[in-house]
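Sample 1 of the test manifest.
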Amino acid sequence: MPTRLPGGDAVSRKGLEQPLGRRLWHFPGGIKLRHWKKLSISDAIEDAGMPEVLTLPLDQRQRVLPGSQPGPLPELAVTPGQRVARYQRLTASTPGSTAHLHAPTSGTIEFAPNERALRLVPDGRHEGTPLPPMPDWPAAAAETLRERIYEAGVVGLGGALFPTRGKLTQPARILIINGAECEPYISCDEMLMRCEPEPLLKGALILGQILGAEQIVVAIEDQMGKVLQILAGAVAALDAESRISVIKVPTIYPEGGENQLIQVLTGLEVPSGGLPIDIGIVMQNVATAAACYDAVAKGLPLVSRVVSVTGRGIRSPGNFRALLGTPFAFLIDRAGGYRQPVSRLLVGGPMMGQAVADDAVPTTKATNCVLALTEADTKARAPELPCIRCGECQRVCPAQLLPQQLLWHIQDENWPAVRQHHLADCIECGCCAYVCPSQIPLVDYYRQGKAQLRDIHDRDQEAARSQARHQTRDEKQAAQDDAATRNPSDAVADAVAPARTKRQHHD
Amino acid sequence: MKFEVPAAAPHVPAPVSVQGVMFKVLLALVPGVAAYVFFFGPAILVQIAVATACASGFEALMLKARGQPLKPFLSDLSAPVTAVLFSLCLPPLLPWWATVTGMAFAIVVAKHLYGGLGFNVFNPAMVGYAVVLVAFPLEATLWLAPAELAAESLSFGAQLKAILSGALPPPVTWDAVTQATPLDMIRTGSTQDIMISEIRESSLFGDFGGYGWEWIANFYALGGLWLIYKRVMSWHAPVAVIATVVLLTFPVWLTDPDTHPFPLQHVFSGGLVLGAFFVATDPVSGATSPRGRLLFGIGVGLLTLVIRRWGGYPDGFAFAILLMNMAVPLIDRVTIPRAFGHARREPPEL
C-alpha cells in the first residue's frame, strides 16, 4: 500500500497544521437540492410517548444490502415471558458490528415470530435504574469512558450504526462532530443542535478526551440559520478553553458524507478502502455525541432517539424523541396522520433512504427520519431510456467515478472492468441517478454489482483454499507412495528430509 | 397501512430527460439555421423537413423490427437531431433521393443495427453524410452561392423543384447558381501555385472563412456556447478541436502565409464550427471522461487538417469524426480519472 496520501499535497497537508475553518475546500461533484427542512423545523423536540408494544430488532441496522446475508445476532440475556426493567440490558454479548440493546421501558418480553426481534409489552410504570452516573468524567481514564460507551449500546446515529467504541480505540488529532445532515427533509440533527446544544457539546468534549484530540470541530450547514449562534453561545458558556470550534459549510449534497465533509474541512482525502483514523481524524454524528454524554454523565443507555416525521404526506410534520421499537404508524399519528395519498414511505431521506412496505415497522437506532412522499414527489418525469453517455453523472459524482462506464460494464458483466473503474469506492449517494436524463436507477445497478463482486471474491477465496488443500493432500500422497515403494530404513531417512529434496532425489 | 416498495433510492425522480437534452440541442441550432436561410434561401428548411420525416420513418420501422416500444424512443428527439445535423452538412439543393439514402444509412445502419439509442459506435449524422459524399460526389458538391453573389437567384419554388426533380428552371444552369466552396478554391488554387492572398480576393471570401458561412458559423458557435452554459454538453471537445486547429496551423502559416491559409480561415471554413460544437460533443459516439473528450477533440482537429491538406476531400471533418469514433474505446480505457482516495497515478490496464 502506498503511504503517500492521495490528494495530500503540500498545500492541503497544511490543513492539519493550522486550526480548521480558516479556509474550506471543495469536494468534487455533488448537487444543490431543494432541502424541504422547514417542513419539520419547530421550537421543540416533542416526546413521542408510549406505544402499546415495542418491537426491537436484534440487528438494529435497517439497511440490508441485496445479496448480503443477515448478520449474526447478539446472544440474549433475557428469555420470553421475563419481566424487564427500563434500561435493563437485553443482550449478553455482541458479535461484530452490532451493539448492546437495552429495554426502553419496563414490561414483559416476547419473541417476534421471526425470532430476529424481541417484543416488549410495556407495563406502564416505566421504571428502572440506569448505569451509575459519572459526573466527574473529566478526570476519568479513556478506557473507562470507552467501556461505558460500549456498555450503553451507543452506535453511530448518523445511520451507519457502527459501534462508537470501535471508532475510539486509536488516538486522533481531529474530532469532527457532523451536523451537516445534507439529505433533504431530515432535520433531527438540526433540531438537536437548536434545542439541546449542551449535551452534544459535552459529548464532543468526552469524545475529544478519549481520542486525545487537539481540535474539535462541529460542522453545520450554512442554511441552518440560528444554529450557529446557538452553538457558539453554548460553546462559550461551557468550554472555557474553547477547544470546540463551530464551522459552517456550504449546503451541497452529499456534504454530510464522512469523506466529503473531511475533504471540505481539511482538504484531505480518506484513502480508498481506509478509514478517517488513517489520516488522524474521527467523525461522529451530533446525536452520537449527545448519546455519549447521556451514557457517561447520566449513565443512560441508548434507548431512544430523535426522529423527523416529515414529508408532504404528513399533516403536521415535526421531530419526536421516540423510544426504540416505536412503530412508524404511532409516530405518524403523533404528527397528525397522513395528509394526502402517500405513494412511498421511507426510512431516511429521499436520496439514500429505504422504502418500507408497512408503517408497522419499528423505530431503531438507525431511524433518523420517517418520510412520507406523495405521488407528486415520486412520479417519474420521463420514461427510462438507454444511457446516452452524456456524462452528467460523472460531473456530480463525489467519488470521481465514471458512473456511465460502470453501468455499461455491469450490464456487460465485465467484472475486471468494473473493478478497474473502482465500483467499491461508490458511496451510493444517488447523485448520478438524480441527474440522469435517461432516468436509469443507477444506484440499483451499483448495489447489484457490488454484491456480484463480493460473490466473486468469496468464490475466488474458496477456490484458492481448496486448491491449497488439494496440493497438501497430493504432496502427502506422493510422500506415502514413495515410502511404500522403498525399504523401511530409507523411509526413516526420508521422514527427516524435506519432502521436496526427497522427491528430486528419487526422480 | 401498506405501501409499495419500488426500486431503491433515490426516491425522487431526476428532473431531466433525454427529450429535454435533445430539444435544447435543436433549439441551439435555430440561430445557425436562421442565418443559413438569410444567406442561402429557404432550401435548407426543405432539406431539414425531408430528412426529419425520413429519420422518424426509419426510426419507427427499425423500432418495430427490433420489437422496441415506439412511443418513448420516437419522442426522445434523437432522430430529429441526427436529421438536422445531417442536413446542415449537405448542399441545400441536394436531390431528395440522396437525402433519403443518407438518412437510411444514418438511422437504419449506423444507429439501429448497432443497437439503437445509446449504442451506436459511429455518429449517425456523419455516417449519413459520408455515404452521400462517397456515393453521390457530384450532387454533394452543388453548393449554392450566397444569394447576393449568385449570377441568378432562385425563388423558393425553384429551389423546391430542384430538390424534388433535380432540375433547374430552363434558362438557369447549375453553374449560375452554384459555386465552389472556399475550401475547394484553396485546394485547387494551391495545386496551381496561386497564392492564398490571390485566392482570397474572390468575392466568395469574407473576413475569415467563406462569405456568409463565417456568419453562420458564428451563430452555430453561439448556440454551442449556450449549450455549454446550460450544461447540456461540456466544453472539452469543442475547445480541443478548435484549439488544435489554431495551434497547428499558426506556425505553418507564419512560415509561409502565401501558401498556407491562416488559422481562422481553417476554423471558419467547412463544417468545423458546426462539427466542433454539435458533432464532436455527441456523447454516445464520443469519449466519455473530460480528459478523453480533450483527446477526442485533439484527434478530430488533427485528422481534419490532415485530410484537408493531404486527403481526397476538401473538408475532412466527417471522416475525422468517424475515425476518432473508432478510437473511443481505447481513449476511454486510458483516461479513467483518478477516483476519490486513490493514488494520483495508476497505470491504465490495456
